[in-house]
Design brief:
The complex is a heterodimer. By secondary structure, chain A is an alpha/beta fold. Chain A is built from 15 helices and 13 strands. Chain A folds into 2 domains: 313 residues, Rossmann fold (3-Layer(aba) Sandwich), CATH 3.40.50; 55 residues, no CATH class. In chain A, helix 2 links the parallel strand 1 and strand 2. In chain B, a hairpin with a 2-residue loop joins strand 2 and strand 3. The chains are: A alpha/beta, B alpha+beta. The interface between A and B is large, with 48 and 27 residues.
């Protein structure tokens, strides 16, 4: 398939793997690379990329799964909205199984709430046009990748003067999360694989502080296996040459200035929240997007009375440590025992982009030896 | 048999495009299903006679008794065991590229019988109709069932019709139960799988699941993907003629190939290694999966046969499958291994290996 096969050629993968191994030997120390984005985590597992890399190179799976970082309280709010008989709640498929404090959207749907899975926020606007006697609420979440389409949907709703439509905004921002991680004293990361699709929107400039202030190299990467391998190689080249820069491997999509039209739409519709609570990571200042007062008629947080409670994570859940890279998924006390994809305690186990679900789904067997070595300090 | 297939395909297409004028004598005059059609009275009698009995036309059904009676001596002449299975069909939409709920209800149950090595003989047909369903829709579905049954040489010999209030069912549900006969010496079961066996598939995976996704119209994608709905018993018969010692067979329906192989691995306490590069998937299906973040190995099929056979017989079975229209794209896709027991491993194109796990719930599209 064009534009896919050329990024999955085994020969090129083998060649890149050799280059990476050579540089790892030159560096003579264990390396930890954080892939920020859940899409990368998913691809690394799906293609078994760890298998063709030297043992001394370890991935730390970052906080870039927007479903995983959604706190229980916000899920409870969405479920509360859906209990209103006038409401049709529309959302993306992978939010359906994310656990709230008591239940999830899939169970809420089964017990009578009208909850619909859509592929785009614009689909929810269509539901609003087709159901003028109902109130349609789109449960919006995601990083800067999905925020533009949410923003455009609100602009479209305003242009058409659609009154039975609103958004429950849970959009989060990737840069404040990375900053919070970099401030964390227990974070041990030698470099970052930057999120490709977020960067397509925000460009490469916002990452410079990582190189300049925190002296960690960054390579913004695509999502195909060769993209990821090439990005690792570029990171290692920086490390061997003692460089510390923001480089762009994904230049076929990511421009340094980002997508100005998308950014403009985000800024027009959203303002940055002073604070947003992330599952596992706690409060992160300036890390969430709320709807501006000019578009208050489309803001579900104003239209509906919400419980708006902060609910603590499950006591046994160690999602926070996993998102910070302090623990590997299998080192969590409840991994694959009390916490499985069927009954997730923490959200890292829910989405296929969550580190724990990825390990559970793709890695339980192949990683066994590697795990034992790491657990016994021979990493 | 090849000629018959061609004949029915052609006939089937022509028949479905014909209109059904309602003023003909011996035709049901009602345009929509009402609660009266399920009341047990004259309206129900007319519906059963004009729609079902006329279409399924066979001497056992035409007796209109409360049950079908089967001649035991006839059955025992054909084999030494009965195979018995049931399945319900609730697909939405009712009609989709390549097939429809009627053909599915016949072939699906036939295939559940066929993978035991049974020769399918008789089916029942229970339908639940939603009040307000256009009679023409029902007619179209029943015609499709009739043609599928003729093509597969099975008879629909008993049935039931219920009508429920509008909203209590979605348009039309079908249940079919099937009886088939297994020849002496045939013993096909997931428990028989041995280390070293070869895993063979009869063609491209995921076409049905992708066709349904597209037919629901939520994706605004246009493709020429058609459901792979087909009866598998002729292909199975062909395979058993060259290799009666087949260890296990299953049709990969809901949950796709990955689910069937996981069931095999768990049942026989073996591992299964699949080779990604050998697994046939149409480019269009792969494309849809790339867009939505789905995996074709979990997409539903309605005419895909997974065969597990001792490696000594693999080549024979493969060439037999390839020589049959239902298996012309057959290929060996994997092997049975001792360890890890209960797991399916996928060898990727890079030579890396990962677990191909059971699906948790439905496949959900990723958001980014």
């Amino acid at each position: 398939m064009k534009y896919v096969d050329e990024f999955r050629e085994p020969e090129k993968a083998a060649a890149l793997s050799q280059h990476i191994t050579k540089l790892c030997h030159e560096l003579k120390k264990p390396l930890k690379i954080m892939e920020v984005c859940g899409g990368h985590t998913h691809a690394i597992f799906k293609y078994g990329i760890q298998d063709i890399l030297p043992r001394s190179l370890e991935f730390i799976h970052g906080p870039g799964c927007p479903v995983c970082v959604m706190p229980k309280g916000r899920l409870d709010d969405a479920i509360a909205i859906s209990q209103n008989h006038q409401v049709i709640l529309a959302t993306f498929g992978d939010t359906m199984r994310v656990p709230g404090s008591r239940t999830n959207l899939l169970q809420a749907k089964a017990t009578g709430a009208d909850i619909r899975m859509v592929y785009s926020p614009l689909d929810s606007l269509q539901i609003a046009r087709e159901n003028p006697d109902k109130e349609i609420v789109f449960f919006a979440l995601g990083f800067e990748t999905t925020a533009p389409s949410t923003a455009f949907t609100i602009l479209q709703a305003a242009a058409e003067n659609i009154t039975n439509f609103s958004m429950f905004s849970n959009h989060v921002l990737v840069i404040p999360a990375i900053q919070q991680l970099l401030e964390s004293p227990d974070l041990q990361v030698d470099g970052f694989i930057g999120p490709g699709h977020v960067s397509m929107v925000i460009g490469t400039d916002p990452y410079h502080f990582i190189a300049q202030t925190y002296h960690k190299p960054v390579v913004i990467s695509g999502f195909e296996p060769l993209d990821i391998l090439q990005s690792i190689w570029m990171l290692l080249l920086q490390l061997t040459q003692n460089r510390c820069q923001v480089e762009n491997q994904y230049h076929r999509l990511v421009h340094p200035e980002g997508n100005t039209i998308a950014l403009q739409a985000i800024n027009q519709v959203f303002a940055v929240r002073k604070n947003f609570n992330w599952r596992g990571l706690g409060d992160i200042p300036n890390s969430g997007l709320k709807i501006r007062p000019e578009y208050a008629q489309f803001d579900a947080e104003i239209k509906f009375t919400l419980p708006n409670l902060q609910v603590a994570d499950h006591k046994a859940c160690q999602c926070g440590e996993i998102l910070k890279g302090v623990l590997k998924p299998w080192q969590c006390k409840v991994f694959a025992t009390a916490c499985t994809p069927e009954t997730p305690l923490g959200t890292c186990m829910v989405s296929s982009e969550g580190a724990c679900a990825a390990y559970y789904k793709y890695g339980r067997f192949a990683q066994t030896n590697h795990r034992q070595k790491l657990d016994h300090g021979h990493g | 048999m090849l000629q018959e297939d061609h004949f029915f395909n052609k006939y089937y297409t022509t028949y479905l495009t014909m209109s059904f004028p309602s003023h003909q004598p011996n035709q049901l005059k009602d345009t929509h299903i009402t609660l009266a059609h399920g009341s047990g009275g004259k309206a129900m009698g007319d519906l059963i006679k004009h729609i079902f009995v006329n279409s399924f036309d066979n001497p056992i059904l035409s007796l209109l008794e409360d049950q079908a009676t089967l001649n035991l001596a006839n059955l025992t002449q054909q084999g030494d065991r009965l195979a018995f299975t049931t399945d319900s069909y609730v697909v939405d939409p009712l009609f989709f590229p390549g097939s429809d709920i009627g053909e599915l209800a016949i072939n699906g149950t036939i295939n559940d019988l066929a993978v035991s090595g049974a020769k399918p003989l008789y089916l029942s047909c229970g339908v639940i109709l939603e009040e307000g369903l256009p009679v023409d829709t029902l007619r179209r579905v029943v015609t499709s069932m009739k043609l599928a049954a003729q093509k597969a040489k099975v008879q629909i010999i008993t049935g039931d019709t219920k009508v429920v209030h509008r909203g209590a069912a979605d348009k039309l549900f079908i249940n079919t139960t099937g009886i088939g006969v297994i020849s002496p010496g045939i013993n096909i079961s997931a428990h028989n799988i041995q280390v070293g066996d070869a895993v063979i598939i009869n063609g491209e995976l995921g076409n049905h699941g992708a066709a349904i996704l597209i037919a629901r119209g939520e994706l605004a994608l246009e493709t020429n993907i058609e459901s792979d709905c087909q009866p598998l018993h002729y292909l199975v018969e062909h395979i058993l003629n060259v290799c009666p010692q087949v260890h296990a067979m299953r049709d990969a329906t809901r949950g796709g190939l990955a689910t069937v192989l996981n069931e095999f691995a768990l049942t026989s306490h073996v591992g299964i290694r699949l080779y990604e590069e050998f697994i046939p998937v149409r480019q269009e299906v792969q494309g849809i999966c790339e867009i939505l973040g789905l995996d074709p190995l979990y997409l539903a099929n309605e005419g895909k046969l997974v065969v597990v056979v001792a490696s000594d017989h693999a080549e024979n079975v493969l060439s037999a499958m390839k020589s049959h229209p239902g298996g012309k794209n057959a290929c060996v896709i994997g092997e049975v291994i001792a360890s890890p027991p209960g797991l399916v491993l996928l060898k990727t194109a890079f030579g890396t290996e990962r677990i191909l796990d059971m699906l948790v719930g439905e496949q959900l599209p990723r958001i980014c």
